[in-house]
Design brief:
Radius of gyration: 27 Å
Strand content: 5-15%
Mean pLDDT: 81
Structural class: mainly alpha
Shape: extended
Low-confidence stretches: 288-296, 298-302, 304-320
Distance between the termini: 55 Å
């Protein structure tokens, strides 16, 4: 089984400078962060899907197709409960709350609190659906940008790109090492599971908790192997003089071409465009948040400040 998501290719995305690839990943995260409206998020998602087809990274996207769908669906459903703004479209009855009472013995001031005796319902609004879909698309596009980056960038290129962007070498090496070790540990765990199955150990017996308990013995050899690999890696780094140079050399030289400069400029324009969508309010849900200054009475300004400071997320349960 492959332990890395990198796919060999000769596309423009594969040949671009590693620093531009790292900067492109940052710009994708930056662009998704500033936009909430699903309509404003759709073009960026379509752009990443086209890039996946051109680079040959589509197998990695297809492998995660159900995860993308579940991520959007569950996020949308979750925000139906926590984002309650706008006019309700319909109400979904959830459960019936029995009538209860609590008596607080406070001497002469004994007080009884009664509650329940009605159906608890969820009011679904148009804004809650739009907001939930937007949040789901944001998470899906963040994942898609990461998958596209890993499909077209080697770990060595990732390290070089971070160093060219003036990231401290030790920090960049630690990040790239995490990418390597996570894949290696996953491969080791899969190998141990296959070995245990060959010995007749069944991981699929029992309920969900029983299956989780059966995977506990796998963690012991994986952990011991991780300690052994970490010790060997520390000795190998010391033998190669890791940390003796402020700017260590690289085995492969990556020259900066004119196409890299054009790609860098295009990414800056893409990030600026999405920030302007946020600044003008076109990428938000509801009315624009940034409007030209106008002469309004002081009382109106005070009221608007009070309404702006009110909590955005309200409880989704409305008791009739």
């Amino acid at each position: 089984m492959p332990i890395y998501r990198y796919i060999e290719g000769q596309s423009f995305f594969h040949r671009v400078h590693p620093a531009v690839k790292v900067f492109a990943l940052f710009i994708m995260f930056w662009s998704v962060y500033w936009v909430d409206n699903p309509l404003a998020l759709m073009p960026l998602g379509i752009l990443m899907l086209i890039a996946a087809r051109l680079t040959g990274a589509w197998p990695n996207f297809y492998r995660l197709r159900w995860f993308f769908a579940i991520l959007v669906a569950t996020t949308t459903i979750m925000w139906l409960f926590f984002y309650q703004r706008g006019t309700p479209l319909f109400t979904i009855p959830l459960f019936y709350l029995d009538e209860h009472s609590i008596t607080m013995p406070l001497g002469r001031h004994t007080h009884t609190i009664s509650f329940g005796g009605h159906t608890v319902a969820l009011s679904v609004t148009g804004l809650s659906i739009i907001f939930g879909v937007g949040r789901g698309l944001k998470l899906a596009e963040l994942l898609a940008a990461s998958v596209l980056f890993l499909s077209t960038t080697k770990v060595e290129e990732f390290t070089v790109g971070l160093s060219r962007l003036r990231v401290p070498y030790r920090f960049g090496f630690a990040i790239s090492l995490a990418f390597r070790l996570a894949a290696l540990f996953g491969d080791s765990a899969a190998t141990i599971v296959d070995a245990q199955r060959l010995r007749g150990y069944n991981f699929n017996e029992g309920g969900p908790f029983e299956r989780m308990r059966r995977y506990v013995p796998v963690a012991v050899p994986v952990f011991m192997g991780a300690l052994r690999k970490a010790n060997n890696m520390a000795m190998a780094l010391e033998a190669r003089g890791f940390g003796n140079r402020v700017e260590p050399t690289t085995f492969i030289d990556y020259p900066v071409r004119a196409s890299d400069r054009l790609a860098f400029a295009g990414l800056i324009l893409l990030g600026a465009f999405h920030f302007m969508l946020y600044y003008t309010g076109l990428g938000a849900i509801g009315p624009a948040t940034h409007r030209p200054a106008s002469k309004v009475p002081a009382k109106a300004v005070a009221r608007s400040d009070e309404s702006a400071s009110a909590p955005i997320y309200q409880s989704s349960f409305r008791l009739p």
